[in-house]
Known about the structure:
Elements: E1 6-8, E2 15-17, E3 22-27, E4 35-41, H1 44-58, H2 66-69, E5 76-80, E6 83-89, E7 95-101, E8 106-109, E9 114-118, H3 122-129, E10 137-142, E11 145-149, E12 157-158, E13 162-164, H4 165-179, E14 182-188, H5 189-196, E15 208-213, E16 216-220, E17 228-230, E18 248-253, E19 259-265, E20 269-276, H6 290-294, H7 299-308, H8 317-324, H9 328-340, E21 344-347, E22 352-355, H10 362-365, H11 370-380, E23 384-389, E24 393-399, E25 404-410, E26 413-416, H12 419-424, H13 432-440
Antiparallel strand pairs: 1-13, 2-3, 2-12, 3-9, 3-11, 4-8, 4-10, 5-6, 5-9, 6-7, 7-20, 10-11, 14-18, 15-16, 15-17, 18-19, 19-20, 21-22, 23-24, 24-25, 25-26
Helix pairs in contact: 8-9, 11-13
Amino acid sequence: MAASDIINYQYNHSSILDQQQLLLSGYSEIQPASCFFQGFLTEPYIVSRCLITLSNIVKSSFNLSPFQMAMMRDPIATAGNEKIRFEGFSHCAGVYARVDILPGAIDGEFPANGTVNVDFNQPMINALGGVRRQGQIMLNIGAKEISMQTSVTEKVVERKVPLPLKWIKGLTTVQMFLSAAENVYTFNQLQAMQLFQSIPTGQPKTDYYLIRRGNKLVFSPAKKTNVLCVGGVHRLKLLEPLLPLANELKVFAGPNMQSTTWQLYFGNVRFSFSLSRECWRGFSGEGAALESLVADVPDAWLDAMNKYSYANQEFNPALLAVEENIGFDKVDNLTGRMAAMGLLGYDLDDRNFFYRRLPFKQSRILQLNPRMRDAEKLLEEDKVVILQSDNNRTEARIEGSGVQHTVIIDHDKARCTCTWYAKNQGQRGPCKHILAVKIKL
């Protein structure tokens, strides 16, 4: 991992677990209010098990070296709109997980709203593991720390941790897949446990398919048409500890099956688990949000969104359009832009984007994707020539290193003669040449 891929934050203090409360050190580049939530969780046992599973996902990897796996990562907590969400990625960014704590599982106040990243280490996981079914969790989420009061007397100290840029990049991509996904299967608890028994042992090298065998669905390496394809199916084993506690499992997939999402329901708590197409392909490199970065969005619009949105609120483009006198078509572009910047998550049940006030500067988020930077460099060096352009078709020539590439955009379909497009056929977002042409148009 390159040094440029990591931001080192200086924390004001270490995290401490004493007899009364757990204080997790956090960091934010923005300046939100000091307290986002304070109160009790009314389903503490379920929440504690979900957070333990989330932590196991955060410290897992399916394609990195042992050295890279030794680096811990921090889950992101968002509080607001009577909801609390914890999010995280695996080391390789190929697995995304989110714990949604809904109003029915919360008894407290939200003095303000915001997002903070916190460190989960093993002693803290042990503290969560000590929560029993009749236990209690008092939670306080603030701009600089999270405090959690339990009956645990063990003391925990957590140090500062490096935060990888690929997490931010993953947030810009995963919700694009979620917004295109539809519910394809629903299982009750027994059916879900039976399904997971068919997951092969070890780490299979081939894709697996969800097929019907008799009167139930199972995973099989036998390829069939019009069935759900799951790459890296062994990653689903991370969900197994939660299955006996869940009431229901829903499976969501997009039209091209580049991602699948497995959502567990526990009354007023949900656990979402999204898998990239293959183990070696992290959400941070998929490029699904690149199209949205092509359109220019004025800084004033971004400021307006911060003004009219707050953490976990459903993004309301109509309100923004009316209040700021912005055309509805332009607000649609703004929605895509905000999602591409990682400021919008997606709720599969509500079928709506929700706002997350990321603890990162917007200017940094917009500079994360190398393909976008390469496209802008092509334009700066005047290597993009539009040969033909009308309402339906555009043809362009792009100067490469000793070779010329041709880009053709026919209605909404774009293709290029470069090796990136030949390999991926647009399934991992546009190549830098297509991006450059679209920016220039």
